[in-house]
Automatic annotation (TrEMBL), chain A:
Keywords assigned: Lyase, Membrane, Transmembrane, Transmembrane helix
InterPro entries: ComplexI_Subunit1, NADH_UbQ_OxRdtase_su1/FPO
Origin species: Acidipila rosea
Bilayer topology annotation: Multi-pass membrane protein
Gene Ontology annotations for the cellular component aspect, listed alphabetically: plasma membrane
Protein name: Formate hydrogenlyase subunit 4
UniProt KW Disulfide bond keyword: no
Pfam families to which the protein is assigned, alphabetical: NADHdh (PF00146)
PANTHER family given in the database record: FORMATE HYDROGENLYASE SUBUNIT 4, FORMATE HYDROGENLYASE SUBUNIT 4-RELATED
Compartments (UniProt record): Membrane
GO molecular function, one term: lyase activity
Record-annotated membrane-spanning stretches: 6-22, 66-83, 95-116, 128-147, 167-185, 228-249, 255-276, 288-309
UniProt KW Membrane keyword: yes
Automatic annotation (TrEMBL), chain B:
Record field: transmembrane: 20-39, 51-72, 97-120, 127-146, 152-169, 181-203, 223-243, 255-277, 289-312, 319-340, 399-420, 440-464, 547-571, 662-680
Entry protein name: Formate hydrogenlyase subunit 3/multisubunit Na+/H+ antiporter MnhD subunit
PANTHER family: FORMATE HYDROGENLYASE SUBUNIT 3-RELATED, HYDROGENASE-4 COMPONENT F
Annotated keywords: Cell membrane, Lyase, Membrane, Oxidoreductase, Transmembrane, Transmembrane helix
Membrane topology: Multi-pass membrane protein
Key word Endoplasmic reticulum present: no
InterPro entries per the UniProt record, alphabetical: ComplexI-like_HydComp, NADH_UbQ_OxRdtase, ND/Mrp_TM
UniProt GO MF annotations: lyase activity; NADH dehydrogenase (ubiquinone) activity; oxidoreductase activity
Lineage summary: Bacteria, Pseudomonadati, Acidobacteriota, Terriglobia, Terriglobales
Cell compartment(s), UniProt: Cell membrane; Membrane
GO biological process, one term: ATP synthesis coupled electron transport
GO cellular component terms attached to this protein's record: plasma membrane
From TrEMBL, chain C:
One GO MF term attached to the UniProt entry: oxidoreductase activity
Keyword set, alphabetical order: Cell membrane, Membrane, Oxidoreductase, Transmembrane, Transmembrane helix
Top-level lineage group: Bacteria
PANTHER family: HYDROGENASE-4 COMPONENT F
NCBIfam families: PRK06458.1-3 (NF005043), PRK06458.1-5 (NF005045)
Protein name as annotated: Hydrogenase-4 component F
Places the protein is found: Cell membrane; Membrane
Automatic annotation (TrEMBL), chain D:
Protein keywords: Cell membrane, Membrane, Transmembrane, Transmembrane helix
PANTHER family: HYDROGENASE-4 COMPONENT E
Segments passing through the bilayer: 6-27, 34-56, 62-84, 96-117, 123-144, 156-177, 183-201
InterPro entries named among the record's database cross-references: HyfE-like
Protein name: Hydrogenase-4 component E
Species of the source: Acidipila rosea
């Protein structure tokens, strides 16, 4: 019951979250903001268009959007955004989640290379590069969490947290910063990529979508908004898991509480993201490694801090 | 898989036929097959359509027997053949460890032999019958290596393996590069073998007993135990392609015919892993955590090294060879970790790490042979090995492309395929390293996990490059226009391996159980707890982590299906074919695609320290600009060439001894006499 | 009786071939005589196996388990070499490098050489041993200089002088031995130089004299074994003499010389009571193995290459004898056997290879597998066998030697490792291009005799995988005899 | 008693002469002279053998004395003489090492040999015990001579001188080897010299000189 509600909610409000971020950005850059529903409109429009597919695009190219969407929905089903007793969550812990995202990334890159256009391949190359730099950092963040709560499956993490009302461990701060940096990188936001631009030489994510149109494009866009949403939820589960309905909680009240908490967190997070994005400038593509190395370093620092301060390791 | 079929029934009713005898029969059968080819030396038909399929059947039966043995978790069987040295007849032994590797050999061998049946064409290089002989001797010797229970038989089989594979590698011996590669390979193999021999010499421990049983009993001082371990590490590392003993590997694998490369990379390297496990966990009874740390470091370094070099290759088989180095590195990382845990008395985690290593060996033997065989088909279809001349083959050879895609995703370590399972297990076991009792280890080793993550992600990068450049995009050469798809035998072989990748991916419980049988025997009872249904696997405790490839697969498939239907329903837009848009750039030629070098560029940029690069950039005013880059292994110049030069110098010095003047020769004798007289004076 | 036949037949053959050696059927005759010797030797061997050691003619002749298998080996390889040399010499004649007179010399000297070696093996008298060695030297000197070219003359001259001096020193050693012996044994009859008698009383022989004697004997016979730094004659003689001679030189003569050294070592060790002689052998062995390997690295002449390989292997065997003990001696004897079988077969193929290519320069020999598969693969398999790759028998002995060394003298194993590695690289990097690759050389005028080659290799292969118990028992007995 | 004393004395004297002659050989340049010295050596050997034979009253020693006379005093010198005549190799060119240094080396060798033989000869039961050292010295000296000379002929003479030394050792130290062996040795010696003769001619017709520096083609380069 939680399970499907959660998935439905994720699918529903992911584009809204995206829209909310762009709205905040527009405000901060005092542009006139598009309405919140803008992304829904765009999806509808795309779904109704005729698809134009390159002459010798293979099945891989046409199948990829569905795979992307599928993986993201599955991820949403695993991440405890509202509640923790998710039967699906048994299927994959956080590491498997990273694997799931990697699958999506690989498929997208392959699809981008399928047509054989210069930009597609370039985008794929950059995307994979960012990917293999971001994953170690993310893993280190998870390591922190594991050291704290002795589990890599997110629902159990949240339960653990709820079980003992500890003060925030100092290592968490490092980890959180690292996580935010990874989140920006993985979701093609400034400072690594610019979701708004179509300036060929700088784009990464967009470059891979050049050949997509209509329903395929719609699915990809939806998937990427879901990805951002999922990442946000992972962040919440790791660092501010308040309000998530833990084990045994049932009935309407916790549900409403959880939804409210989620919406509130998303609002704040969206605003914060927009703020970061507007404040920072896009990096040259070869500065990206340094950026992600920084993230990795922070995560490791968190780890060491934790081990040094000798918090109880095996919870 | 085979295990899976049997697990249900067999465990209850353990059959009475001794598995070892069956295995030996198969081995003999292989040798007979090899010799049978010599009856009609040059008829390809007999060899291809009769002998190789029969060999495949042999492999299959080996897999079945080993699988049953593991499933039933039988007691180990021993046998003595009246051959070999007078005081030392051939001892054979089948226990769970050897059974696991025989299972590996059987499963991978089945696919490879089936493929080979369709692969070998007539006319080029060695006569088919000779190839058949060498091929099956190679198979048989690998099986014997795994079954051997005394040092002599082990060494004989080991060197026979090296020899037969050498002849297979040089089957195209008209080409000088191939001869050079073969020479380097055999040289390294021989040196490694001598190291292993010396290792056995150390372990014999007093009594001239070379049976493994006697070695288990031998008591060694820490110094000699470590000496044995190091010798073994060097010897088996040289065979496995552990950096810095890896130089032969990227030379020999591309040189060999594809089924042979598949066999070497898929199975032969694993025999080295087997030997390492046999010695460090079974024969040596004292172990030290330093060994584990060393192995862990070497493994991680090799893995990183292999991944980085694979990323910048422009020859598809070379790329795969380096990726083999990477995977071997991962396997050794697992073994090292297991040693660490085991020496720190954490048997459960040791079992976890060891299972990860074992399962990764099995997985690697599946997807790596799959990919090597796929390159073989590509080679036959296009006569191109250089990535710069391939592309767009997914349209010409859909079968190979599809099956290769499975292998690519699997080796990239993506769920829900098998590559992810082992890497996931390894990462899980890394999570427990903070519990190591050593101050520095428990801080440093977690970084190993990060390195591992980097390596896995890098391998994903490499594989995207591999697949994208060969099968996707536009054909880079006009000649690719009439590439043909693989024939049915080749498809069958590829299909078998691909099926293996998927099956292990969604049902890892089976192999996990098999690995459990091994770890249970090796680590004295410790095995990964299988508190897990057919749905999920739970390595340590359900609270900590669980994974289910099956659910993931079903989930993805389900969601994709539903979305597809919905989209079909709601979106009533047609689909029309046009030219690619590409930012409205009209003049597209295949040469404008990103090349293999281009895909390697970020890696070159980031890990420049690893390479020796020679670049030749075109000048802006160049009418037909040409860009050439040559990447070289630093270790080659840093390590191997100096060695060769040193030997040369010493040889020249020795040459001075023989100056051709008789008086000087007499002087030598004279001085020798005087010196010896002084000795006895 | 068999002994008489074994010694007499080659001598008779010498005279016979001295008369008829120029005829066209001389080759067959040579084979016939060798075969007769082989038959006689087989009888002898059977008898010794049946009734144990044999002492005849006032104990002047001794056949015990140590030398009987060397006798068997010698006559067998002598026989196969005779088979090989028939077509080989035909081809040489066809190429105009030899004429009937030389052939006569060749055939009779070949038989004389066999006779001398058999005498050296069978005699129980250290003095006669010396005489036989000298005779062997003289006969082979003529064989080495058979082509009468500058190179062959030079080689023969060096061979003669170096081995002559060596043998003279050996004589002095023998004299000292006698000098020591007559203190204990007295000089009645001629018992004082009989090995069996000396062996019986070796504990009472004056150690200091025996030490001196051993040094002289070691340097003397060691020159013929080809121990570094006394080896300088060996590569020249092997490279410049006719191939059958190279085959018997490295296949048999070296063994016989080493046999003499070992006999002396037994006495010296027994008298001195310390391991000094063993240590000397080990030192010589290691030096020869390593330097031989490094020499291999830089060869340009195919027969010279394998001459050095013989030095290397003799080094290994000497080292093993120096180690002493049942296993090491066993391994050394086994290595003697497989080495002479393998090496002679290699020389057979190398000879035909150089005939096929018309030169002995390695760089000019290419693609043998293309010219004649039997020669090519024969050379390839032979080299692999001599490099100690299983399942060939050479590996068996090296396995035992290395493990024993690792057990008793670990310090020596790195040296052996280097030696084996360098030797492998040195030989294989040269053999591989000779066998593989392209070639456009014409086929040989006469069909080469490859039967001996594959016969030998088959035997070596068998020894690698399975050792008949009788043979093993035989080796064990010999090893016990050598002791150490 | 006195007789044996006398014999011992004279043997010592002869041994000294032998040593002297070897030194002389070491210093000579002309091959003819060397041959003559070699003959003298043989003669001394013959005398010493006779003395030992007389003293020990062994018939077989008489035989070997006769053998010495025939072989070493008459046959070999004559053959060598003829060879040198025919080959025109009277002059040995400058030795590799110059004479004085050779002499010094020789002196060192003699001391070494004596030191070596001292303890052993104490054991000898024969009256001629301490001649062993001299025999050894002679051997080493002729070895030295072989090393330092350039001409083939001189090397051969050195070789034969070495044989003489051995023979002296055999007779003086041990009253001679058993007869069979004596014969064998003698036979080998004879054959050897014949072979050498053949060689000389072949070498000369190939290299038209007996100078050894022609024989340095076979080498590791």
């Amino acid at each position: 019951m939680w399970q499907f509600g959660e998935v439905a909610l994720a699918i529903a409000i992911a584009p809204l979250f995206m829209g909310w971020i762009s709205q905040c950005r527009a405000w901060m850059q005092n542009r006139s903001a598009p309405p919140l529903t803008q992304s829904y409109r765009m999806l509808r429009k795309l779904f109704h268009k005729d698809a134009a597919v390159a002459t010798d695009a293979s099945l891989l190219f046409r199948g990829t959007p569905y795979v992307l969407f599928g993986t993201m929905v599955l991820a949403a089903a695993i991440i405890p955004s509202l509640a923790t007793d998710l039967p699906f969550a048994r299927a994959a812990d956080a590491i498997a989640l990273i694997g799931l995202f990697a699958t999506a990334r690989v498929f997208l890159s392959l699809a981008a290379m399928d047509i054989g256009t210069a930009f597609g391949t370039m985008g794929a190359r950059r995307e994979m590069m960012i990917g293999f730099l971001a994953e170690p950092a993310l893993l280190m963040v998870l390591f922190n969490a594991f050291l704290l709560y002795g589990s890599t499956s997110l629902p159990n993490l949240v339960n653990e947290y709820a079980a003992r009302h500890t003060v925030i461990d100092p290592s968490v701060i490092f980890a959180a910063v690292a996580f935010v940096m990874v989140l920006l990188a993985e979701n093609a936001r400034i400072p690594i990529d610019n979701p708004g631009t179509h300036l060929e030489l700088t784009m990464i994510h967009e470059a891979m979508l050049l050949e997509y149109s209509a329903r395929h494009l719609a699915l990809v866009e939806w998937a990427s908004s879901l990805k951002l949403f999922n990442y946000a939820c992972i962040g919440f589960a790791l660092f501010l898991p308040w309000g998530i309905a833990t084990h045994g909680a049932d009935g309407g009240v916790p549900l409403l509480a959880a939804v409210a908490a989620l919406v509130a967190k998303l609002t704040v997070a969206g605003a914060a993201l927009a703020l970061i994005e507007s404040l920072s400038a896009k990096l040259r593509i070869f500065r990206a490694p340094e950026y992600l190395a920084m993230a990795f370093l922070l995560a490791v620092l968190g780890l060491l801090v934790h081990l040094l301060l000798g918090a109880n390791i095996n919870a | 898989m085979n295990a899976h079929l049997y697990i249900s029934g067999i465990t209850s009713s353990a059959i009475a036929v001794p598995a070892l005898r069956l295995l030996l029969i198969v081995v003999a059968f292989w040798i007979v097959l090899g010799l049978a080819g010599l009856v009609r030396p040059c008829s390809l038909r007999v060899v291809a359509h009769l002998l190789f399929p029969l060999g495949a059947a042999g492999c299959l039966s080996v897999a079945l027997v080993a699988g049953v043995f593991l499933a039933a978790n039988r007691m180990s069987e021993v046998m003595i053949l009246p051959l070999g040295l007078p005081s030392l007849p051939f001892h054979l032994r089948l226990d769970t460890l050897s059974a696991f590797f025989l299972l590996l050999l059987g499963i991978a061998g089945t696919g490879i032999s089936t493929f080979a049946a369709g692969y070998f064409r007539s006319g080029v290089g060695t006569a088919p019958a000779l190839l058949c002989l060498q091929y099956h001797v190679f198979l048989a010797s690998m099986a014997i290596v795994i079954l051997a229970d005394d040092a002599y038989l082990f060494m004989v089989a080991w060197e026979t393996m090296a020899l037969s594979s050498y002849f297979l590698v040089t089957s195209q011996h008209r080409i000088p590069e191939i001869r050079r590669a073969g020479f380097l390979y055999l040289l390294m193999a021989h040196l490694g073998a001598i190291c292993i021999l010396l290792c056995f010499g150390v372990m014999q421990g007093g009594s001239w007993q070379f049976t493994f049983d006697a070695m288990r009993g031998a008591s060694l001082t820490p110094f000699w135990a470590s000496a044995a371990f190091l010798l073994a590490l060097v010897g088996f590392g040289a065979k496995a392609g552990l950096v810095p003993m890896h130089a032969w590997l990227p030379e020999a694998h591309p040189a060999a015919p594809s089924p042979v490369s598949a066999m070497m990379s898929g199975i032969m390297l694993k025999t080295a892993v087997y030997g390492m496990l046999r010695i460090s966990f079974d024969l040596l009874h004292v172990r030290f955590w330093q060994w584990g740390a060393l192995m862990l470091a070497m493994g991680l370094f090799s893995a990183l090294y292999g991944a980085i070099f694979a990323a910048v290759q422009t020859d598809m088989k070379r790329l795969l060879a380096y990726s083999s180095i990477e995977n071997i590195g991962i396997i050794f990382t697992g073994i090292g970790l297991a040693l660490l845990f085991e020496t720190c008395h954490l048997p459960l985690f040791a079992a976890l790490a060891l299972s990860a290593a074992l399962i990764h060996s099995l997985n690697h033997s599946l997807f790596k042979s799959l990919l090597f065989l796929a390159t073989g088909s590509v080679l036959h279809a296009t006569n191109q090995r250089s990535l710069g001349k391939l592309g767009g083959l997914i349209r010409r050879m859909p079968w190979v492309a599809t099956l290769a895609l499975v292998g690519t995703l699997a080796i990239a370590g993506l769920p829900p395929l098998n590559g992810f399972v082992s890497e996931w297990l390894l990462l899980q076991s890394f999570l427990f390293t903070p519990q190591l009792p050593h101050a520095f280890l428990n801080m440093l080793v977690p970084l190993g996990a990060a390195a591992l993550a980097l390596i896995v992600a890098l391998s994903a990068y490499v594989m995207v490059k591999f697949y994208g450049v060969i099968f996707l995009g536009q054909p880079r050469e006009a000649s690719l226009g009439h590439a043909h798809d693989a024939n049915w035998l080749e498809r069958l072989g590829l299909g078998w391996l691909a099926f293996g990748c998927i099956a292990i991916g969604i049902q890892p419980q089976i192999v996990l159980r098999a690995a459990g049988a091994v770890t249970g025997r090796v680590l004295g009872g410790a095995a990964v707890s299988l508190r897990s249904s057919i749905w999920t696997i739970v390595p340590i405790a359900p609270g900590q982590a669980s994974y289910s490839g099956l659910i993931l697969l079903l989930g993805i498939v389900g969601v994709v299906g539903i979305t597809f239907v919905l989209v079909r329903f709601l979106a009533h837009g047609r689909m029309r074919r046009t030219d690619p848009w590409d930012c409205g750039y009209p003049w597209q030629t295949p040469r404008m695609q990103d090349t293999a070098e281009g895909l390697g560029q970020p890696i070159r940029h980031m890990f420049g320290a690893f390479f020796r690069m020679e670049r030749e950039l075109p000048s802006p005013s160049d009418v037909n600009p040409r860009y050439r880059i040559h990447i070289e292994d630093r270790l080659w110049r840093a390590l191997y060439l100096p060695m060769a030069r040193g030997v040369q110098r010493l040889a020249d010095m020795a040459g001075l001894l023989q100056g051709g003047r008789l008086a000087i020769y007499l002087l030598y004798s004279f001085l020798t006499l005087i010196v010896l007289l002084v000795f006895v004076l | 009786m068999e002994l008489l036949l074994v010694l007499g037949l080659p001598l008779a053959g010498t005279l016979l071939l001295a008369l008829l050696g120029a005829r066209h059927f001389a080759g067959e005759l040579n084979i016939g005589v060798s075969f007769a010797t082989l038959a006689a030797a087989t009888l002898l061997v059977v008898r010794v196996i049946r009734h144990g050691p044999l002492l005849v003619w006032h104990d002047q002749f001794l056949v015990d388990s140590f030398n009987v298998f060397l006798v068997a080996l010698t006559v067998f390889v002598g026989f196969t070499t005779a088979i090989f040399s028939r077509p080989y010499m035909r081809i040489e004649e066809h190429h105009g490098r030899l004429n009937p007179r030389r052939l006569r010399l060749y055939h009779s000297m070949y038989q004389l050489f066999m006779a001398a070696m058999l005498l050296a093996l069978l005699t129980n008298n250290m003095g006669l041993l010396w005489v036989a060695m000298e005779a062997a030297t003289l006969s082979t000197v003529l064989l080495v200089s058979l082509y009468r070219t500058k190179a062959s003359l030079e080689a023969a001259w060096k061979y003669f002088i170096l081995c002559g001096v060596g043998i003279a020193l050996a004589l002095f050693g023998t004299i000292l031995l006698y000098f020591a012996a007559e203190q204990t044994l007295g000089r009645e009859g001629m018992t004082a130089l009989l090995w069996t008698h000396l062996d019986a009383v070796k504990e009472h022989l004056e150690p200091r004299v025996l030490g001196l004697a051993f040094v002289f004997l070691l340097v003397g016979y060691g020159t013929k074994v080809g121990l570094v730094p006394l080896h300088n004659w060996l590569p020249d003689a092997h490279a410049e003499g006719p191939t059958p001679v190279s085959a018997v030189l490295s296949g048999l003569l070296l063994n016989v010389a080493l046999y003499a050294v070992v006999r002396c070592k037994i006495l010296a060790e027994g008298s001195i009571g310390s391991a000094l002689p063993g240590r000397m052998l080990m030192g010589f062995g290691l030096l020869s193995a390593v330097l031989g390997a490094f020499f291999l690295w830089r060869q340009r002449d195919i027969k010279r290459l394998f001459g050095y390989s013989s030095i290397e292997h003799m080094g290994i065997i000497t080292f093993a004898f120096g180690l002493g003990g049942p296993v090491a001696n066993f391994a050394a004897l086994l290595h003697m056997t497989v080495h002479s079988l393998t090496k002679s077969s290699i020389f057979f193929t190398a000879g035909h290879a150089s005939q096929a290519a018309g030169t002995q320069r390695i760089d000019d020999i290419r693609g043998l597998a293309g010219i004649s598969p039997t020669i090519g693969w024969g050379l390839m398999l032979g080299s692999i066998a001599i490099l100690g790759m299983p399942p060939f028998g050479v590996f068996t002995s090296e396995f035992l030697i290395l493990t024993t060394a690792m057990r008793d003298h670990p310090w020596s194993t790195p040296i052996l490792l280097i030696a084996l590695g360098v030797a492998f690289a040195g030989i294989f990097s040269k053999v591989q291009p000779m066998v593989f690759g392209e070639s456009d050389a014409p086929p040989l005028p006469h069909s080469p005799a490859m039967v001996p080659v594959f016969l030998h290799l088959a035997m070596v292969l068998t020894l690698g995988l399975y050792m008949p118990p009788a043979l093993a028992e035989w080796y064990r007995a010999a090893a016990r005899l050598i002791g150490g | 008693m006195l007789k044996s004393q006398l014999i011992a004395q004279s043997l010592k004297l002869l041994a000294a002469c032998l040593l002297l002659i070897s030194f002389a050989m070491l210093s000579r340049r002309r091959t003819q002279r060397l041959v003559i010295l070699f003959a003298w050596q043989g003669a001394i050997l013959f005398l010493s053998t006779c003395l030992v034979a007389y003293d020990a009253g062994l018939t077989e020693l008489w035989y070997s004395a006769a053998l010495t006379l025939v072989l070493k005093v008459i046959a070999l010198p004559w053959i060598l003489h003829r060879l040198i005549q025919r080959l025109g190799a009277q002059w040995d060119t400058e030795p590799i090492v110059n004479i004085p240094i050779t002499m010094l080396a020789g002196l060192a060798l003699v001391i070494f040999a004596f030191g070596l033989a001292q303890p052993i000869s104490m054991l000898a039961t024969t009256i001629t015990r301490n001649t062993l050292g001299i025999a050894l010295a002679v051997i080493l000296l002729s070895f030295l001579m072989m090393i330092t000379r350039r001409k083939a002929v001189t090397q051969v003479i050195g070789f034969l001188a070495m044989e003489n030394g051995l023979f002296f050792a055999a007779t003086s130290a041990t009253y001679g080897m058993p007869m069979v062996i004596e014969l064998g040795i003698a036979l080998d010696l004879l054959v050897g010299v014949f072979i050498l003769g053949i060689f000389f001619f072949q070498i000369r017709e190939q290299f038209d000189s007996l100078d050894l520096h022609h024989l340095e083609a076979l080498r590791e380069d």
